[in-house]
Amino acid sequence: MFLKIAAIITPVVLIILVGWLYGRKTHPDMSGINKATIDVIAPLLVTSAFISRDFELLEHWNLLLCGVAIVVGSGILAWPIAKISGMDPKTFMPPMMFNNCGNMGLPLAVFAFGSVGLAPAVALFAISNLLHFTLGVKLVNPKASVSGVFANPMVIATILGVFLSSTKHLYTLPEPLYQSIKLLGDATIPLMLFSLGVRMKDANLRHWREGFLGAVICPITGIMIALLISPLIEMTDLQRGLLFVFASLPPAVLNFLVADRNKQDPELVASIVLLGNLSAMFFVPIGLYLGLRQT
């Protein structure tokens, strides 16, 4: 089991390390490629996953329901911890709720469970992003309007993917069009990992105590909720495995972007994200162990 977990983690860590080393050496401007990834490449991955032949959305409603429970439940558990530690819940709760199910979760799903694990992992990623751009934005800034959420490419791709997935029995995309969407969408995983490595070179540890607390609380609350609800919901072994991997993931980089846009203590959130992703070396193997034990 240890060697299997090491084989899954190693490619993820190596690609992040390459990004970090490249970022340290050349200080590249990743804004263009990051924008292209968020606006075009990742949405195409979402669409292609929903319409893939081996994915039936209705077969994974239970997994998606559990994913929502982990997101919301982690926020509820994080609220008293924020109060006790003296942090603003608007700063602390979102990174505890919205984890790195894109940059880290998608490659882990593929390496751990093979290609059959990608589509349901992408569905979890899409649902988490939808919650982040609605509930998450409102938590950070209660006055923020989410009316523009439906103009977000990820949200559009999710809605389109759900529609195409539910009508696959009536109509399928022409094969050349599907392969073009899939080919470009598949670039999401290595690009996200590489970009995560580049981003990590800039984070500071001025708020290392709060960052360490968040790095621990995020995966612990996720794993606790997964352990609580998994016996109660009927799922396949693959779904349970994916659920535990999802639960163990660190805070998403997107939390920093949302905090920065809304001026909600972005430096503290950056520390939580950085230390959270470093601590993934400890917590993700726990999630993988619990997940692989199901398969």
Question: How would you describe this structure to a colleague?
Answer:
The structure is a single chain. By secondary structure, the chain is mainly α. It has a single domain, classed as Na+/H+ antiporter like fold (Up-down Bundle), CATH 1.20.1530.20. 74% of the residues lie in helices and 0% in strands. It has 13 helices and no strands. Helix 2 runs parallel beside helix 7, helix 3 packs parallel to helix 11 and helix 11 runs antiparallel to helix 13. The two termini are 12 Å apart.
Q: State the CATH architecture.
A: Up-down Bundle
CATH class: Mainly Alpha
Q: Helical content, roughly?
A: over 70%
Question: How big a fraction of the residues is strand?
Answer: under 5%
Produce a short descriptive summary:
This protein has 295 residues and is mostly helical.
Chain-wise SSE layout:
Blueprint: H1 2-26, H2 31-50, H3 61-85, H4 89-97, H5 105-113, H6 118-140, H7 153-166, H8 175-185, H9 188-200, H10 208-229, H11 237-247, H12 254-261, H13 266-292
Kindly list the characteristics that best describe this protein.
Na+/H+ antiporter like fold; single chain; globular
